[in-house]
Amino acid sequence: MPDITMPQLGETVTEGTITRWFKSVGDTVAEDEVLFEVSTDKVDSEVPSPIAGVLTEIVVAEGDTVDVGTVLARFGDAGDAPAPASAPAQESAPPAEPPPIAEPPAPATAAPEPVVAAAAIPAVSTAPGKLLSPVVRRLVADNGLDVEQLVGSGVGGRITRRDVESAIAEGRGVAKVASGPATAAPSSPAAAPPQAAASGEVQPFSNIRRLTGDHMVMSKATAPHVLTAVEVDYEAVEQVRNNHKAQFKAEEGFSLTYLPFIARALTDALREFPHLNASVVDGGLIPHGDVNLAIAVDLDFQGLLTPVVQSADSKRLRAIAREVSDLATRARSKKLSADEITGGTFTITNAGSYGTMMQFPVISQPQVAILSTDGIKRKPVVVADRFGNESIAIHSVGVLALAWDHRAFDGAYAAAFLAKLREIIETHDWEAEL
């Protein structure tokens, strides 16, 4: 029978930590029965078994972090299972001392302030009996926490990533840096955490920051990025929002923003310009039948997730709004499944709440375009009546900026798409949608 390997849990995820095995060696496992739990910097997921059989060997123990594609376990016939003594140690067994946290490499030349450099990453206090996964150890080290002050909510009292993130958010568990030699600075007040480090001190990237950065560098090196932007008059949308926002909030439990209107118009525009809803693969373009719309969600400035509204082109405005709100909420609480952050065919990044004028986003490979929805403001505009008479009016106006891959099409195609998107936003019967 085939081996069980670490699955790909997100387009930029390259590794995962096994946090729990639900089955033991010798157990019979049904297809689609939950086999193990895996934690990454983007999602925590219970992974079902892709096959049925007898679990004959667990290769990767709880707490270990391995790359995608690594063999985790092996299946076989009932007679192939080893004796129970060879099964992995249980949670109650004394854990081995976790490996030390790797510090950033020292520069080739001597540091001008060796005392400061030595305290770049506070030592991680590992209390007896507290088993920490590598992901948790990195978070503890990066944020200068003392695990003796942390309370675990996981199986057997294990300290989970959510426990550490809660401590960081609430300012709990900051470790004190050990006293240095007599020449070191006085120990009071307490040493500042890494985010308030002295100038010149190396602050290691978090895993999600590093993986996101690697993906962005790869995208810029792969695709010739071009930016095309248009100004859009949102007055028709604004009037409908004002008419319905109170009732909508009462019925749905969240605010009616501009984003669902833009997403709804986008799906219609992509039907007429299918080369934007496509991927570049093996020297060619693959247009996709469905619009699986990825929405970039900020995780408190610590990174991004792009949950996907599957088959968004088959949904109306209210359904899109519900799904975007639900996905964004669960993304911030890390309750998304792996399937909900993969398979996007086109991405929207929404910085408009910060009042941006225009930004140039990076394409999520292998997609060919990403749309930035920027700030919408009340501005004077020229309007014409049905007789062609012009006058000045105050409307809600904003910019839509499209970053696109010049391998897939040319500027005229991108400009025509944005013109169509603008036309739909400005002229669609939004009242009927609600």
- Termini separation (Å)? 53 Å
Strand order of the largest sheet: 9-18-17-16-12-15
| Number of DSSP E strands | 18
Mean pLDDT: 81
Topology:
Elements (H helix, E strand, L loop, with lengths): L2 E3 L9 E7 L6 E2 L4 E6 L4 E5 L4 E6 L6 E3 L3 E6 L37 H5 L15 H9 L18 H10 L36 H16 L2 E9 L1 H18 L6 H14 L5 E4 L2 E4 L5 E3 L1 E2 L5 E2 L2 E2 L7 H16 L13 E5 L18 E16 L5 E16 L5 H17 L2 H4 L1
Parallel strand pairs: 12-16, 16-17
Antiparallel strand pairs: 1-8, 2-4, 2-7, 3-6, 4-5, 6-8, 9-18, 10-11, 12-15, 13-14, 17-18
Helix pairs in contact: 6-7, 6-8
Question: Could you please describe the fold and organization of this structure?
Answer:
The chain has helices spanning 114-118, 134-142, 161-170, 207-222, 235-252, 259-272, 317-332, 411-427, 430-433, and strands spanning 3-5, 15-21, 28-29, 34-39, 44-48, 53-58, 65-67, 71-76, 225-233, 278-281, 284-287, 293-295, 297-298, 304-305, 308-309, 346-350, 369-384, 390-405. The protein is an alpha+beta fold and 434 residues long. The strands form 5 sheets. It has a 6-stranded mixed sheet. A hairpin with a 4-residue loop joins strand 4 (34-39) and strand 5.
